[in-house]
Amino acid sequence: MEFGDDIEQTPKGKFHCKLCDVNVPNKASLEDHLKGRKHQKLSSVRDTRRAQETKSVFVSGFMRETSQLQLADYFQQFGPVAEVIMDKEKGVYAFVEFSETKGLQSALSHPHHSLEGQKLRVKPRERKEFRYIPKKKQDPKNSLLSLEDLSQELCQAASVNEQMQRVVESFQLSESEKKVRALLVELLQEVFTEFFPECQIVPFGSSVNTFDIHCCDLDLFLDLENTKTFQARAKSCSEQQTGECHSEDARSEDSILSDIDLSTASPAEVLDLVAAVLRKCVPGVHKVQALSSARLPVVKFSHRELGLQGDITINNRLAVRNTRFLQLCSRLDMRVRPLVYAIRYWAKQKQLAGNPFGGGPLMNNYALTLLVIFFLQNRDPPVVPAVDQLKELACEEEECVIEGWDCTFPSQPIAVPPSRNTEDLCTLLAGFFSFYAQFDFAGSVISLREGRALPITSFLSKDQGEEGEQDKARDPAPKTPRLGPVNVLDPFELSHNVAGNLNERTQKNLRRECEEAAKYCRSLQYQRKSAKGKAWGLVRLFVPCGSSAHGPPGAAERHLVIGIPFRAAVLPDAVRHQLHSAGDLFRQLWFEKVSHAVVTVFRDVLKCSVEPAGSPRKAGHTGQSSGKDAGLLGCCSSSSGLAGKIAFAVGQTAITGGDGDENRKSIHEENNNCDVDTSLSESGKEHRPLNSDQGGVKRALPSGDDMTMSPSSKKQRLDSSDKSATACWHCLLWHRVWAARRKVRRDLLKSLPAASRPEGGSVELETQVTECIAQEQPTAEKLLEFSLEAEVLGGTENTQTVLKFTPGDDQAGLFQDFFHFLESFLPKMTEKLLEKLE
Ligand code: UTP
């Protein structure tokens, strides 16, 4: 073979190096590989090993306590001995390597060998094929199993329940790993006490919340409360200047505390000191980094020998408490732990989770764990009680308030009656996926406190004053959560949306992965072990995203769809109030506003002609749309608009004793001014003329307590009465508005005097950019035509306006470029217009 025995050619014409276990795509890369360090090193190790084998004998039969030296002495008689390698663990065999092959031959030809009265067995050393074992596979005990190894392990289990237990066993920290962590905590405690007398280092997060995995980081809270008191005492003592202060506190003179006043120091100053102590005084610690501007200021560090990464925070008492809460949940029911492990691993494989402290658009493990617990609170009967119920079961000594938030729950599981739920793990896991596949993320706020989903409308108009119980003077942080595509309230810090960092895409991915998993869980492959040794149960669920053969259903059609998500945060207060008052009908009302904004973007910003679909098209280039265009915002219905329906629904509420007249009036008036007609259809697909006489919206708005509902009750209600709104238009595009847009924008900004420059990214600026483009590309010919259908999806779907594009004749193949541009431009501009609504 041209490249030697190590190299084999694959059927696809690539090369595989057996020695290094790597594939290389072509000859040139192969030559580089063969000259490379790895290959050269392994070849030389193999040569040495082979040479050793030809000069070594295998020896057994000696006593356990026999030393290498004794063996070397004995075999010296046959020739110089280079090395003796003992099987250390068992002490039952050894390899004796001679410096020359002569020694080996002489030893083998000797009929009997004995040492200290023991008969030795001596034979040629077996020649084994040299195999390279990559480092990560060398010690599977303390590192995460590869998916391949895990899959093999899981396939052997007898049931999904057993598979889930095996996931826990494969990932959880071993006793020795836990011991190492405890020792590091002890060491840190010792060192930090030197500098911050009476401080406490408290671990929280995955090392201690019972959801630990190999290599998980070590989250630590440095509690300086006692140190502050200590410092205050020491200060007052020195102020007395009696010279007779015998208190231990006098030590503070020499400690780091003489450099800093903890009662007034900023978190950044304290963190800098913590970082300095870590860097200079804790053996083995390196890569120390203070991140003072993070949501939770933190010092990150690594420990070289222990191979651990750690975080130290200083203002994180709530995290220590919520860690205790997770521990309690885990101890309340044996099913919690395996379920959380399986779902965490699934979410990691699907790239849904993995950001600690919400540092990106993926979910952090804490938020994901809360999703699991919320699901368990919503089983029938529940597996875990709501936090409010747990609070009732706590005794007086367990009462706990941190930063104004009630964090009371029992410390021991014995205080909580066992769950009556008897579902097995296999059913619960499948249930988790179906639950979130159907969950109304955009319309709800997940509350573990109450154990149910709260309608998002009840948060839209809340301002800081409504959380009356909280001590505002002490904690000026906002008391309302930052709403987003996924809203999961922290069970204690009720103003914190732990999933607030998720974006629309992550939410969609979460839902889609849940849908796919739920579908798979209904198949026999999930429920039954394969008799033919095929992947089954959890194994298929753990296939990483991107590697499954089939994409998500409908992927092919999705590429001409743009979604405008409902984002309460961008809306002006008045609009939020209005939506809030509309109750369940907020979707339709919001849809009207979005549709109007979308049409404005096409018509005014991109200078398209926009007409309602179905109406006769204008022949020529209209350039600017007429006032008539504005009134022609498309629709599929000839019936009265949404305004009437909302007014009707609000009227019904009055009969049932619901919302006040004020709100009704303002909605009615507002909607009479809307220029979008929307039709309401029962299913969202079938368009049906509708007015109040013809059985329009009959359901009264929920009132009072009825505003909150569990996901299941909400689903039922929405199925029977929630409506979808649709609208469609026909559009003509006259200019290549996407081409060189950035350059035109830059030139435009340069040419304008600073005082009259529109704000970057504003509707005004983008309108002017299009005008510049239009001037440079005068045309009387339409460039593209397309139809646009808009539909609001709500209820069990995400609340969003979905815009479907259907291109007309596009021989020049321009539509894809235009669409690609719209994908980011349209949602941004629409949002800008919504922000400015009055
Ligand atoms: P993580 O999300 O890192 O969870 O948050 P984890 O269980 O430690 O998982 P790993 O480390 O990713 O394997 C760590 C801790 O930080 C607190 C919680 O106490 C959590 O256990 N935390 C996190 C919050 O209090 N709020 C948050 O929004 C996020």
Key descriptive features of the protein:
single chain, 838 residues, alpha+beta, Alpha-Beta Plaits, five-stranded antiparallel beta sheet, 14% strand, binds uridine 5'-triphosphate
Q: Would you spell out the secondary-structure blueprint of this structure?
A:
Layout: E1 7-9, E2 15-17, E3 22-24, H1 27-35, H2 37-54, E4 56-60, H3 68-75, E5 81-86, E6 93-98, H4 101-109, E7 113-115, E8 118-124, H5 135-138, H6 147-155, H7 160-171, H8 175-195, E9 200-204, E10 218-223, H9 225-240, H10 267-281, E11 285-291, E12 298-303, E13 308-313, H11 317-332, H12 336-349, H13 365-377, H14 387-393, E14 401-402, E15 405-406, H15 425-437, E16 444-447, E17 452-455, H16 457-460, E18 488-489, H17 504-521, H18 524-527, H19 538-541, H20 555-558, E19 561-565, H21 573-581, H22 586-605, E20 609-612, H23 627-631, H24 642-655, H25 661-672, E21 679-681, H26 711-721, E22 724-733, H27 741-751, H28 763-776, E23 784-793, E24 800-807, H29 815-835
Parallel strand pairs: 10-13, 16-18
Antiparallel strand pairs: 1-2, 2-3, 4-6, 4-8, 5-6, 7-8, 9-10, 11-12, 12-13, 14-15, 16-17, 19-24, 20-22, 21-22, 22-23, 23-24
Bound molecules: uridine 5'-triphosphate (UTP).
EC number: 2.7.7.19, 2.7.7.52
GO molecular function: ATP binding; poly(A) RNA polymerase activity; RNA binding; RNA uridylyltransferase activity; zinc ion binding
Biased composition (Polar residues): 673-682
